Amino acid sequence: MPEMSPAPSPAHDPRVRRYLLIAAGAAVVLAAWGIVSRLYARVLLERAAADAAIVTVATVHPSRGPGSDILVLPGTVQAFYEAPIYARTNGYLRAWYTDIGASVKKGQLLAEIDTPEVDQQLRQAEADLATAKANYQLARTTNERWQGLLATESVSRQDADERAGDAAAKEAAQQSAAANFARLKELESFKRVAAPFEGVVTQRNTDVGALINAGENPGSALFRVADTHRLRIYVSVPQSYAAQISQGAAAVLVFADRPGKRYDAAVSSTARALDASSRTLQVELQIDNARGELFPGSYAEVHFDLRSTGTALLRIPVNSVLFRAQGLLVATVDSSGHAHLQRITQGRDFGREIEVLAGVAESDTLIVNPPDSISDGMPVRVAPPAAAPAEAAPAGTT
Predict the structure, then answer these.
(1) What is the pLDDT of residues 313-340, one digit of tens each?
(2) pTM surpassing 0.70?
(3) SS3 of 353, please?
(4) Torsions phi, psi of 16, nearest 5?
(5) CA distance readout (Å), 227 to 102, 200, 269
(6) If phi over 0 gives left and psi between -120 and 50 gives alpha, with beta otherwise, what is residue 248?
């Protein structure tokens, strides 16, 4: 029986070795691909994270202010003349003749006060004056007689001097009584309360039978009279605008109770000094009110047209300003997309905008609403400008 050759080992089988090499190569390729893909994914993730860390910002350029500014301030309207009317004597109100809203002339009777005590004092003073006159006449006649007797040496000089001194004393007593009588007569005339000037009665705080006490006590004014043919308007102008307000400057008044109407006024005077507590300049304007359309005590909006005297300064939005320990800052963006912090000097405040005296140029690109974390040199991404909204097509068109 012939001998059979032994079967080849699987490890030495060429086909097996080929398959093993192919499998090993595939494993190496797969491993390399997995490592490379993970490294690439990590790079992409880091790049995305870095890209996401860059803040996207909106920007704006500083703009020049207009050639003139409209300054709107609150104003208080007052009558040209206004005075509370107080009593100058004591008594009870006998009658009043004018009520609120009544037009009065200068010297017109407003009310009468019943003053029985003052009337009696006046009669007593009149009697005292008559007595003093009689005493003086007797003392004067006696002095003249004693002076004649002294000339003939019929009386001593001492007696004559006594009579002369008595006559002088009686004359002084007569003058005192006359002054007291004049005082009480003047006081008695105060029972007639009259208007001090032409105007309108705006308040009446008394009635018939009310007890009247002389003097300027709180709440004791009988009437209040206002001259409203011309009105005064008082405005407090901030310090930053004070230098632009001068006598004769024109203004326009707007009243809430007169919608659609505008009234021309002019600056009549200024305080020429700032109030130390509010840093404002008190300004007085005047307006004609012959027709009585406007009322004292009203609130008015005063519009000043402030003309610029030189080159208009730059203005920036208030939401582009950073408040830091070193002062007011703005963040600008350069051509490479990096932020830079610049210190500015603020001028006037217009609410939504502020005036910049120094620190920015008209060509600078400012970041609007900069994040609190922004720092100098920080990379930023500038958002594209928002597209203008399309205008609506007119009705009936396609």
Answers:
(1) 788 999 989 988 888 999 999 888 888 9
(2) no
(3) strand
(4) -65, -40
(5) 12, 6, 19
(6) left
